[in-house]
Specification:
The structure holds 2 protein chains of 2 kinds. By secondary structure, chain A is an all-alpha fold. Chain A contains 1 helix and no strands. Chain A is rod-shaped and about 60 Å long. In chain B, strands 1-2 form a two-stranded antiparallel sheet. The radius of gyration of chain B is 25 Å and the shape is globular. The two termini of chain B are 41 Å apart. The chains are: A mainly alpha, B mainly alpha. At the A-B interface, α1 of A face α3, α4, α5 and α9 of B.
Chain lengths: 45, 275
Protein backbone atom coordinates (compact mmCIF):
# COMPACT_ATOMS: atom_id res chain seq x y z
CA UNK A 1 0.00 0.00 0.00
CA UNK A 2 1.45 3.36 -1.02
CA UNK A 3 1.58 6.38 1.35
CA UNK A 4 0.75 4.11 4.25
CA UNK A 5 1.97 6.53 6.94
CA UNK A 6 -0.32 9.29 5.69
CA UNK A 7 -3.31 6.94 5.44
CA UNK A 8 -2.72 5.53 8.94
CA UNK A 9 -2.30 9.08 10.26
CA UNK A 10 -5.62 10.24 8.79
CA UNK A 11 -7.58 7.17 9.96
CA UNK A 12 -5.88 7.25 13.36
CA UNK A 13 -6.76 10.91 13.84
CA UNK A 14 -10.38 10.24 12.91
CA UNK A 15 -10.75 7.30 15.28
CA UNK A 16 -8.86 9.02 18.10
CA UNK A 17 -11.02 12.12 17.80
CA UNK A 18 -14.26 10.13 17.83
CA UNK A 19 -13.08 7.99 20.74
CA UNK A 20 -11.87 10.95 22.78
CA UNK A 21 -15.09 12.95 22.37
CA UNK A 22 -17.27 9.91 23.09
CA UNK A 23 -15.33 9.09 26.26
CA UNK A 24 -15.38 12.72 27.39
CA UNK A 25 -19.15 12.99 26.84
CA UNK A 26 -19.80 9.73 28.71
CA UNK A 27 -17.61 10.73 31.67
CA UNK A 28 -19.16 14.19 31.82
CA UNK A 29 -22.70 12.75 31.86
CA UNK A 30 -21.78 10.19 34.53
CA UNK A 31 -20.16 12.85 36.71
CA UNK A 32 -23.20 15.15 36.37
CA UNK A 33 -25.61 12.30 37.11
CA UNK A 34 -23.72 11.27 40.25
CA UNK A 35 -23.47 14.86 41.46
CA UNK A 36 -27.17 15.41 40.87
CA UNK A 37 -28.00 12.21 42.74
CA UNK A 38 -25.84 13.38 45.65
CA UNK A 39 -27.50 16.81 45.80
CA UNK A 40 -31.07 15.68 45.25
CA UNK A 41 -31.68 11.91 45.37
CA UNK A 42 -35.29 12.36 44.17
CA UNK A 43 -34.34 13.90 40.81
CA UNK A 44 -33.25 10.84 38.86
CA UNK A 45 -32.87 11.75 35.16
CA UNK B 1 -65.44 21.94 36.94
CA UNK B 2 -66.18 25.57 37.78
CA UNK B 3 -69.06 27.93 37.14
CA UNK B 4 -68.90 31.21 35.24
CA UNK B 5 -71.51 33.84 34.47
CA UNK B 6 -72.42 34.10 30.84
CA UNK B 7 -73.83 37.38 29.48
CA UNK B 8 -75.69 36.30 26.40
CA UNK B 9 -78.14 38.59 24.48
CA UNK B 10 -81.60 37.07 24.33
CA UNK B 11 -80.85 34.62 27.10
CA UNK B 12 -81.15 34.87 30.83
CA UNK B 13 -79.05 37.79 31.95
CA UNK B 14 -77.20 35.91 34.63
CA UNK B 15 -77.17 32.40 33.29
CA UNK B 16 -74.71 30.25 35.12
CA UNK B 17 -72.88 27.89 32.85
CA UNK B 18 -70.53 25.14 33.83
CA UNK B 19 -67.18 25.08 32.04
CA UNK B 20 -64.18 22.86 32.31
CA UNK B 21 -61.57 24.51 34.53
CA UNK B 22 -58.72 23.16 32.44
CA UNK B 23 -60.21 24.78 29.31
CA UNK B 24 -60.73 28.06 31.11
CA UNK B 25 -57.15 28.14 32.32
CA UNK B 26 -55.50 26.87 29.12
CA UNK B 27 -52.99 29.33 27.63
CA UNK B 28 -53.84 30.83 24.24
CA UNK B 29 -52.53 29.03 21.15
CA UNK B 30 -49.19 30.48 20.07
CA UNK B 31 -47.06 29.94 17.03
CA UNK B 32 -44.05 27.72 17.76
CA UNK B 33 -46.00 25.91 20.50
CA UNK B 34 -44.83 22.50 19.30
CA UNK B 35 -41.29 23.82 19.30
CA UNK B 36 -41.51 24.84 22.94
CA UNK B 37 -42.84 21.40 23.87
CA UNK B 38 -39.26 20.20 23.30
CA UNK B 39 -37.82 23.00 25.41
CA UNK B 40 -38.83 21.06 28.49
CA UNK B 41 -35.50 19.65 29.79
CA UNK B 42 -37.19 16.64 31.40
CA UNK B 43 -38.85 15.74 28.09
CA UNK B 44 -35.56 16.21 26.25
CA UNK B 45 -33.74 13.93 28.72
CA UNK B 46 -36.42 11.24 28.32
CA UNK B 47 -36.48 11.43 24.51
CA UNK B 48 -32.72 11.64 24.07
CA UNK B 49 -32.21 8.84 26.61
CA UNK B 50 -34.27 6.56 24.37
CA UNK B 51 -32.73 7.71 21.07
CA UNK B 52 -29.06 8.14 22.02
CA UNK B 53 -28.02 4.44 22.40
CA UNK B 54 -29.47 3.59 18.96
CA UNK B 55 -27.96 6.70 17.38
CA UNK B 56 -24.53 5.98 18.87
CA UNK B 57 -24.66 2.31 17.83
CA UNK B 58 -25.68 3.18 14.25
CA UNK B 59 -22.93 5.82 14.08
CA UNK B 60 -20.32 3.35 15.32
CA UNK B 61 -21.32 0.56 12.94
CA UNK B 62 -21.59 2.82 9.87
CA UNK B 63 -18.33 4.65 10.57
CA UNK B 64 -16.34 1.45 11.11
CA UNK B 65 -17.98 -0.21 8.07
CA UNK B 66 -17.37 2.82 5.82
CA UNK B 67 -13.75 3.25 6.93
CA UNK B 68 -12.94 -0.48 6.67
CA UNK B 69 -14.61 -0.68 3.25
CA UNK B 70 -12.63 2.32 2.05
CA UNK B 71 -9.37 1.06 3.53
CA UNK B 72 -9.44 -2.61 2.51
CA UNK B 73 -11.93 -3.22 -0.30
CA UNK B 74 -12.40 0.00 -2.27
CA UNK B 75 -10.15 0.23 -5.34
CA UNK B 76 -7.08 2.44 -5.43
CA UNK B 77 -7.11 5.43 -7.78
CA UNK B 78 -5.18 5.01 -11.01
CA UNK B 79 -3.37 8.31 -10.46
CA UNK B 80 -3.37 8.85 -6.70
CA UNK B 81 -3.02 5.15 -5.90
CA UNK B 82 -3.69 4.28 -2.23
CA UNK B 83 -3.52 7.84 -0.93
CA UNK B 84 -7.09 8.26 -2.24
CA UNK B 85 -8.20 6.21 0.79
CA UNK B 86 -7.71 9.33 2.93
CA UNK B 87 -10.83 10.59 1.14
CA UNK B 88 -13.01 8.30 3.32
CA UNK B 89 -11.96 10.35 6.36
CA UNK B 90 -11.40 13.76 4.79
CA UNK B 91 -14.62 14.21 2.81
CA UNK B 92 -17.05 12.98 5.53
CA UNK B 93 -15.24 15.20 8.06
CA UNK B 94 -15.65 18.19 5.71
CA UNK B 95 -19.35 17.48 5.07
CA UNK B 96 -19.99 17.03 8.79
CA UNK B 97 -18.13 20.23 9.66
CA UNK B 98 -20.29 22.16 7.16
CA UNK B 99 -23.61 20.59 8.17
CA UNK B 100 -22.64 21.07 11.82
CA UNK B 101 -22.29 24.77 11.19
CA UNK B 102 -25.72 24.79 9.51
CA UNK B 103 -27.09 23.18 12.71
CA UNK B 104 -25.29 25.83 14.77
CA UNK B 105 -26.85 28.60 12.67
CA UNK B 106 -30.33 27.02 13.05
CA UNK B 107 -29.89 26.81 16.82
CA UNK B 108 -28.82 30.46 16.79
CA UNK B 109 -32.03 31.44 14.97
CA UNK B 110 -34.09 29.42 17.49
CA UNK B 111 -32.19 31.11 20.30
CA UNK B 112 -32.49 34.68 19.02
CA UNK B 113 -36.07 34.52 17.72
CA UNK B 114 -37.84 32.12 20.11
CA UNK B 115 -35.41 32.19 23.07
CA UNK B 116 -35.43 28.41 23.02
CA UNK B 117 -33.34 27.36 26.07
CA UNK B 118 -32.32 23.99 24.66
CA UNK B 119 -31.13 25.67 21.46
CA UNK B 120 -28.70 27.71 23.55
CA UNK B 121 -27.31 24.61 25.22
CA UNK B 122 -27.15 22.66 21.94
CA UNK B 123 -25.35 25.54 20.18
CA UNK B 124 -22.79 25.71 22.99
CA UNK B 125 -22.16 21.96 22.58
CA UNK B 126 -22.06 21.99 18.76
CA UNK B 127 -19.13 24.44 18.83
CA UNK B 128 -16.37 22.15 20.20
CA UNK B 129 -17.55 19.09 18.23
CA UNK B 130 -17.75 21.11 15.00
CA UNK B 131 -14.30 22.57 15.63
CA UNK B 132 -12.90 19.05 16.11
CA UNK B 133 -14.43 17.79 12.85
CA UNK B 134 -13.10 20.86 11.01
CA UNK B 135 -9.64 20.24 12.50
CA UNK B 136 -9.87 16.62 11.33
CA UNK B 137 -10.82 17.82 7.84
CA UNK B 138 -7.83 20.19 7.74
CA UNK B 139 -5.37 17.65 9.18
CA UNK B 140 -6.47 14.79 6.92
CA UNK B 141 -6.43 17.17 3.94
CA UNK B 142 -2.89 18.12 4.82
CA UNK B 143 -1.90 14.43 5.04
CA UNK B 144 -3.48 13.90 1.61
CA UNK B 145 -2.04 17.06 0.08
CA UNK B 146 1.57 16.27 0.97
CA UNK B 147 1.94 13.22 -1.35
CA UNK B 148 -0.39 14.61 -4.06
CA UNK B 149 0.52 18.30 -4.24
CA UNK B 150 3.95 18.15 -2.62
CA UNK B 151 2.92 20.50 0.20
CA UNK B 152 1.22 20.28 3.58
CA UNK B 153 -0.60 23.57 3.11
CA UNK B 154 -1.45 26.06 0.36
CA UNK B 155 -3.44 29.27 0.66
CA UNK B 156 -6.03 28.23 -1.91
CA UNK B 157 -9.64 29.37 -1.61
CA UNK B 158 -11.13 26.09 -0.38
CA UNK B 159 -8.50 25.49 2.30
CA UNK B 160 -8.49 29.10 3.49
CA UNK B 161 -12.29 29.26 3.74
CA UNK B 162 -12.33 25.99 5.74
CA UNK B 163 -9.61 27.43 8.02
CA UNK B 164 -11.90 30.45 8.55
CA UNK B 165 -14.71 28.01 9.45
CA UNK B 166 -12.40 26.48 12.06
CA UNK B 167 -11.72 29.92 13.55
CA UNK B 168 -15.46 30.69 13.53
CA UNK B 169 -16.11 27.53 15.55
CA UNK B 170 -13.29 28.43 17.97
CA UNK B 171 -14.61 32.01 18.23
CA UNK B 172 -18.08 30.68 19.06
CA UNK B 173 -16.68 28.36 21.73
CA UNK B 174 -14.73 31.23 23.31
CA UNK B 175 -17.53 33.81 23.06
CA UNK B 176 -20.23 31.59 24.60
CA UNK B 177 -18.00 31.00 27.63
CA UNK B 178 -16.63 34.56 27.89
CA UNK B 179 -19.45 36.14 29.95
CA UNK B 180 -20.37 35.76 33.61
CA UNK B 181 -24.02 35.82 32.55
CA UNK B 182 -24.51 32.75 30.31
CA UNK B 183 -27.49 34.35 28.54
CA UNK B 184 -25.28 37.15 27.20
CA UNK B 185 -22.75 34.59 26.01
CA UNK B 186 -25.46 32.64 24.17
CA UNK B 187 -26.76 35.82 22.47
CA UNK B 188 -23.27 36.93 21.40
CA UNK B 189 -22.42 33.42 20.16
CA UNK B 190 -25.67 33.24 18.18
CA UNK B 191 -24.93 36.54 16.43
CA UNK B 192 -21.39 35.40 15.57
CA UNK B 193 -22.72 32.07 14.25
CA UNK B 194 -25.25 33.81 12.00
CA UNK B 195 -22.72 36.32 10.67
CA UNK B 196 -20.24 33.49 10.08
CA UNK B 197 -22.79 31.51 8.05
CA UNK B 198 -21.72 33.64 5.07
CA UNK B 199 -18.60 31.43 4.96
CA UNK B 200 -20.66 28.34 4.03
CA UNK B 201 -21.49 29.29 0.40
CA UNK B 202 -17.93 30.57 0.00
CA UNK B 203 -16.61 27.11 0.98
CA UNK B 204 -19.11 25.36 -1.28
CA UNK B 205 -18.54 27.49 -4.38
CA UNK B 206 -14.86 28.36 -3.85
CA UNK B 207 -13.84 25.65 -6.33
CA UNK B 208 -16.12 27.21 -8.98
CA UNK B 209 -15.35 30.87 -8.31
CA UNK B 210 -11.56 30.61 -8.13
CA UNK B 211 -8.80 28.44 -9.55
CA UNK B 212 -7.93 26.17 -6.65
CA UNK B 213 -5.94 23.01 -6.08
CA UNK B 214 -9.24 21.26 -5.30
CA UNK B 215 -11.27 19.78 -8.12
CA UNK B 216 -14.88 20.91 -8.72
CA UNK B 217 -17.64 18.91 -6.98
CA UNK B 218 -17.85 15.29 -8.18
CA UNK B 219 -20.98 14.48 -6.14
CA UNK B 220 -24.08 16.62 -6.62
CA UNK B 221 -27.63 16.27 -5.36
CA UNK B 222 -29.14 17.06 -8.75
CA UNK B 223 -27.00 15.14 -11.23
CA UNK B 224 -25.25 11.82 -11.52
CA UNK B 225 -22.02 11.37 -9.59
CA UNK B 226 -18.78 11.48 -11.53
CA UNK B 227 -17.24 9.06 -9.03
CA UNK B 228 -16.90 5.31 -9.59
CA UNK B 229 -19.60 3.49 -7.57
CA UNK B 230 -17.00 1.24 -5.90
CA UNK B 231 -15.59 4.38 -4.28
CA UNK B 232 -18.86 6.28 -3.90
CA UNK B 233 -20.66 3.74 -1.67
CA UNK B 234 -18.00 3.44 1.05
CA UNK B 235 -17.76 7.24 1.00
CA UNK B 236 -21.52 7.59 1.53
CA UNK B 237 -21.54 4.96 4.31
CA UNK B 238 -18.64 6.69 6.05
CA UNK B 239 -20.36 10.09 5.64
CA UNK B 240 -23.57 8.70 7.17
CA UNK B 241 -21.56 7.32 10.10
CA UNK B 242 -19.77 10.64 10.66
CA UNK B 243 -23.07 12.57 10.52
CA UNK B 244 -24.80 10.26 12.99
CA UNK B 245 -21.69 10.36 15.18
CA UNK B 246 -21.79 14.14 15.19
CA UNK B 247 -25.48 14.04 16.18
CA UNK B 248 -24.83 11.48 18.93
CA UNK B 249 -21.92 13.47 20.37
CA UNK B 250 -23.90 16.71 20.41
CA UNK B 251 -26.91 14.95 21.97
CA UNK B 252 -24.76 13.34 24.67
CA UNK B 253 -23.02 16.63 25.48
CA UNK B 254 -26.35 18.49 25.55
CA UNK B 255 -27.74 15.90 28.00
CA UNK B 256 -24.73 16.50 30.25
CA UNK B 257 -25.23 20.27 29.94
CA UNK B 258 -28.92 19.95 30.95
CA UNK B 259 -27.92 17.92 34.02
CA UNK B 260 -25.21 20.45 34.92
CA UNK B 261 -27.70 23.30 34.62
CA UNK B 262 -30.09 21.43 36.91
CA UNK B 263 -27.27 21.00 39.46
CA UNK B 264 -26.43 24.71 39.28
CA UNK B 265 -30.08 25.67 39.76
CA UNK B 266 -30.43 23.38 42.79
CA UNK B 267 -27.25 24.72 44.37
CA UNK B 268 -28.34 28.32 43.79
CA UNK B 269 -31.75 27.61 45.35
CA UNK B 270 -30.08 26.06 48.40
CA UNK B 271 -27.70 29.00 48.73
CA UNK B 272 -30.66 31.39 48.66
CA UNK B 273 -32.47 29.34 51.31
CA UNK B 274 -29.41 29.51 53.58
CA UNK B 275 -29.04 33.27 52.98
Amino acid sequence: MTHLANIVGAYGLGLALGGWFSLAAWLRTRRARRRLAAIDPRSQP
Amino acid sequence: MSATRCFKPGADLFMVRAVDASTALAPPQRSGRNLHRFANPGQFLRLSGAVLPWLAAAAFVLTIAGLAWGLFWAPADYQQRDSVRIMYVHVPAAWTALSGYVALALCSVLSLVWRHPLADLAAAEIGPVGAAFTALCLASGSLWGRPMWGTWWAWDARMTSVLILFFLYLGHVALVRAFDDPERGYRAGAILALVGAVDLPIIKFSVDWWNTLHQPATITLTGASAMYSGMLWPLLVSAAGFSLGFGALVMARTRAAVLERRIRTLLLARAQEVA
